[in-house]
Amino acid sequence: MAGNGNENTGGDFSFSAAAARDALPRITTEKGAKSPTPSVCQDDTAPPVNFQTIDELHSLQKKRSAPTTPLRGGGVAGVTGTSGPTTPVSAENMLQSVSASLASLTRETGPKLIRGDPTSLAKVAHVPHTPTSLPAADVSDSGLKFTHVLHNLSPAELYEQAIKYEKGSFVTSTGALATLSGAKTGRSPKDKRVVKDETTAAELWWGKGSPNIEMDEQTFLVNRERAVDYLNSLDKVFVNDQYLNWDPENRLKVRIVSARAYHSLFMHNMCIRPTPEELENFGTPDFTIYNAGKFPCNRFTHYMTSSTSVDINLGRREMVILGTQYAGEMKKGLFGVMHYLMPKRKILSLHSGCNMGKSGDVALFFGLSGTGKTTLSTDHNRYLIGDDEHCWSETGVSNIEGGCYAKCIDLAREKEPDIWNAIKFGTVLENVVFDEHTREVDYSDKSVTENTRAAYPIEYIPNSKIPCVGPHPKNVILLACDAFGVLPPISKLNLAQTMYHFISGYTALVAGTEEGVKEPRATFSACFGAAFIMLHPTKYAAMLAEKMQAQGATGWLVNTGWSGGSYGSGSRIKLAYTRKIIDAIHSGSLLNATYRKTDIFGLEIPNEVEGVPSDILEPINAWADKDAYQDTLLKLARLFRNNFETFTNHKIGDDGNLTEEILAAGPNF
Ligand SMILES: Nc1ncnc2c1ncn2[C@@H]1O[C@H](COP(=O)(O)OP(=O)(O)O)[C@@H](O)[C@H]1O
Ligand SMILES: C=C(OP(=O)(O)O)C(=O)O
Ligand SMILES: [Ca+2]
Ligand SMILES: [Mn+2]
Predict the structure, then answer these.
(1) Which ligand approaches the C-alpha of residue 373 most closely?
(2) What pLDDT digit, counting tens, does each position of 173-190 carry?
(3) Contact 388 CB / ligand 2 (< 6 Å)
(4) What is this enzyme's class at the first EC digit (predicted)?
(5) Ligand 2 pocket, residue 184 CB under 6 Å
(6) Dist. CA 375 → ligand 1 center (Å)
(7) Which of 261, 312, 313, 317 is nearest to 285 (CA)?
(8) Residue 6 confidence (pLDDT) above 70
(9) Of 2, 38, 441, 652, which residue is 20 to 30 A from 604 by alpha carbon distance?
(10) ipTM passes above 0.85
């Protein structure tokens, strides 16, 4: 029979005489005792183990983080009860600070907080929450419970949290964390509110065309309390303390309090990550986000028109998110804050990508969502400074963020290798569809949304420039994804034209990034980011004009949209051609090309661009139906003219001549 290890040769089955009588010999286990069979298993002798139980074995697995990483939570054996001698002072400070952030406005007390995961067996330090002798009427159950704080967890820890507790979290075949953002898969601009107080009433852009829909301070506090109460009711909250802006002089300290590991990992990737030393000395944040995620606002609250509300209070330096889990709200909410704070310091905030050539030539890529900022600023031959949000100061450019947020729909390894390779361990992959077994992502699948996204730290792009700063830009590239197919793939702009197109901010909004947009549609968004600007567009335009003039930067308009017909009949310009066009801008060869001027828009188009078929450079040549082309061109020109009407009564900067030139730089018909 198989299994007893004896060779059964002929049916006879016999033990050795001794074994049969006395059963098996005893094995000696005493220390130092000689093995009963010294000649075998010689090198199986291991040094003595230093654990007695399974729990002890497990406790050995996790080494304590270095003393410079004091703010780690679960698993660190600390003290129970009030903080004792082994609690690092900075950790206690952190808890005090978070408790202050999460304090109820009405009960005037911070919640009781503990570091670490609530399921962790190891007891960790907590802050005793301050006043103890409250009148009995003020004592509530929420005041008696502890909330666990998961402060600046590492990506690995956040993966574990997400996979254990957040439905829809999976590791993909390349190691990314696939997540679902829930009902909202894009931003909700109609649900954005900005507190109008005395200061902001005077400073901000309000009224027609403005993204700033007002709310009063009192209503903000109602929503803030709602978010804070929700967060405090949870067993645990995630807290990220990070930075915005790579320019050290103009850095902002931000705190993000959220309910999901997904949100914490997203912001870990998208904001600038502090070093352990910086984290230890973080102090009080300059701006705080309370992200209550799926927890809705109360529709009976004044100003609320849906169950989603994204509220910014510049005076309190706080933002509240209720009723949406789309992580992009946090990133773009902070961008709005920068659009307010930076111009006060004479720094221009830009909705643009930015990269730098080997010789130090910097290019900006402006454009609305889906026009190619991320794709075209991620360029294997150049250093990536950032893909979406920048500042332009007296000294040059700086990225506001520490990561990139790339669209993933139809992502292909051959076309965008750097973005493809960045989707690995640590990257958040939102709303993608993958094979249930292999976990291979199908980037063409739009079942959840068109707006599938990857958020990764900028250093995941091999030629990213760290720190993400650079000298003054040489080229300012305006990207428009023209769904009408009438704008040339490339045109050179004079300063007035650059300003005209910057203020117009034209594109065909590609489906998905904003809720409810299912088809490309022509749209105008001042400064290529009206949803995020806080001041009147002419304020940013004046700063851009001044900076471009001072630095002698050249403006370009690049159509990354349709050619040979409108959306539906023509086709999108090949990414490979757009890249050739961009190469020619960077190399300087386009500056020396010969140009001709187009009708109506008066755009200068080159006769030739290396690597691009010449018959697409002049849009009419690519259209089969020339009459249809003329009609469409006029239609778009009218849309431009109508849109610009609201700006005709505004002066741009102090230069009266420039204002006149800008007004004249639009289409003529
Ligand atoms: N000719 C083109 N130029 C730029 N992007 C293109 C082009 N054709 C297709 N695309 C696709 O359009 C999308 C641009 O998105 P992205 O770069 O993320 O835009 P943004 O950063 O401006 O929001 C990408 O999915 C890219 O692959
Ligand atoms: C995340 C966004 O930015 P973009 O589409 O420009 O990458 C957004 O607009 O929500
Ligand atoms: Ca953007
Ligand atoms: Mn982008």
Answers:
(1) 1
(2) 999 999 999 999 999 999
(3) yes
(4) lyase
(5) no
(6) 5
(7) 317
(8) no
(9) 652
(10) yes
Ligand 1 atom at minimal distance to the Cα of residue 407: 18
Whether the CA torsion 244, 354, 325, 119 is positive or negative: it is negative
Q: Are 464 and 384 in contact (CB under 8 A)?
A: yes
Q: 385 alpha carbon to ligand 3 midpoint, in Å?
A: 15
Rounded Cα–Cα distance for residues 156 and 153 (Å): 8
In three-state secondary structure terms, 352 is: strand
Residue 3 burial (CB count, 10 A): 5
Written as one letter, the residue type at 549 is Q
Distance CA 616, CA 55 (A): 70
571 three-state secondary structure: strand
Q: Return the half-sphere exposure (C-beta side, CA atoms, 13 A cut-off) of residue 116.
A: 22
Q: Would you name the residues annotated as active-site residues?
A: 187, 332, 351, 369, 373-374, 388, 453
pLDDT digits (tens, 9 = 90+) for 353-386: 999 999 999 999 999 988 999 999 999 999 999 9
Quote the pTM value: 0.88
Distance (Å, whole) CA 556 – CA 551: 15
Q: Which atom of ligand 1 is nearest to the CA of 479?
A: 22
Tell me which ligand sits closest to the C-alpha of residue 514.
2
Rounded CA gap, 445 and 432, in Å?
A: 7
How far, in Å, is the centroid of ligand 1 from the Cα of 419? 12
Residue 328, ligand 1, Cβ within 6 A: no
Contact present, 500 and 662 (Cβ < 8 Å): yes
How many Cα atoms occupy the beta-carbon half-sphere of 174 within 13 Å? 18
Cα gap 478→665, rounded to integer Å = 15
Cα 282 to its chain centre, rounded Å, is: 22
Q: For residues 478 and 501, is the Cβ–Cβ distance under 8 A?
A: yes
> What backbone torsions phi and psi does residue 115 show, to the nearest 5 degrees?
-75, 140
